[in-house]
Amino acid sequence: MKTNALLGSLALLLLLQCGDKEKTQAIPIPTPTPPKTPPSTTLRQLAPFPIGAAVNINLLKTRPAYLNVVKTEYNSVTAENAMKFGALHPSEAVYNWTDADYLVDFAQQNNARVHGHTLIWYKSLPGWVTSYQDSTATWENLMKTHIQTVVTHFKGKVAAWDVVNEAFEDDGQLRNSIWRQKLGDDYIARAFEYAHQANPAALLFYNDYGHEYSTTKRTAILSLVNSLKTRGVPIHGIGLQMHTSSNISNSNLATAITTAAQTGLKVHLAELDIAMNRDALTTATFTPALAAAQKDKYRAVVQAFKALPAAQRYGITTWNVGDADTWVRGYCSCPDWPLPFDENYQRKPAYDGIVEALQSTSTSAGLREARASMFTWRPRATLGNGKAAFQ
């Protein structure tokens, strides 16, 4: 009984103390979570420039959720693989237009622009090209014929082309590709001239990665495109792939964009994704902290691009649509979540970061810093192909 009485007294004392606290302390009110973008609002409605994705044709045909996102969110599409040399031109006398034509038809039905990727690259070449043995003149004809056949086929349907893709190594030297081996350094200029001859109305781009992490490579790329301009070679834009990573500073991202614009050419953020598993850990998970960090990066990138002169904003393209479709996972054999849509094509915080940048009237700190100073920064390591997605 004594024990029960003691327990009862303690309980009464605690109850009275709780009552006193309620009288003297306000109940904490949780900070509200900012509302997400309304479902009825889409990127293509908000963006003052074209916004798009690189599209997998098979997924476009077979996955309804994928199809719905591409139709509702984007007004520009790039073929992820269907317009590369090996896909379009599998043997010397054969062109396969099926998938590429499907994408063009889809774009026309959905009022979307088509960006062509890519005419000349050192990868995705069919065996008949890599084993081709003949004179320099015959090689020149091979390149010219491929470029002009493809550009002519899509004349009036494809607005622009990545004419040459990834011609530089990370050290700023021209890549010793099969095209350079067979045709010399100036194959790049001639590729642009051949494309222009086939369709003078098409916008022609040089496309590469590394602008945001390698000052040396960026300088080499800008030197090339400025030289082409000076020579009167028909080049209209520069593509920044922007396969980037969570640890690249916002000022580095902004510097890449603003220095590209200093060429006076149109700027395309052509293959944007932001990898978050920097150490390629097989056990990594996508935490709220990673989601918030990724949102900040997407917002910074879009703010920097939006600040460019309107005439130079060719557009922003993400490399595929949802995290389930990203090339990054296959490359690292690890989980990663680099895109604005998740496994089920639901909007992530990264999507809201894009929207916030599109709706913002302020200038980001990273962009202000980029404008104030140019600097040298190098990654600790790069992917095997030079892309700094996992640093």
From TrEMBL:
SMART domains: Glyco_10. Residues 40-357 form the GH10 domain. Keywords: Carbohydrate metabolism, Glycosidase, Hydrolase, Polysaccharide degradation, Signal, Xylan degradation. InterPro entries: GH (IPR017853), GH10 (IPR044846), GH10_dom (IPR001000). One of its GO terms (molecular function) is endo-1,4-beta-xylanase activity. It catalyses: Endohydrolysis of (1->4)-beta-D-xylosidic linkages in xylans. One of its GO terms (biological process) is xylan catabolic process. The keyword Transit peptide does not apply. SUPFAM superfamilies: (Trans)glycosidases. Signal peptide: none annotated. Belongs to the glycosyl hydrolase 10 (cellulase F) family. This is Beta-xylanase. The lineage of its organism: Bacteria, Pseudomonadati, Bacteroidota, Cytophagia, Cytophagales.
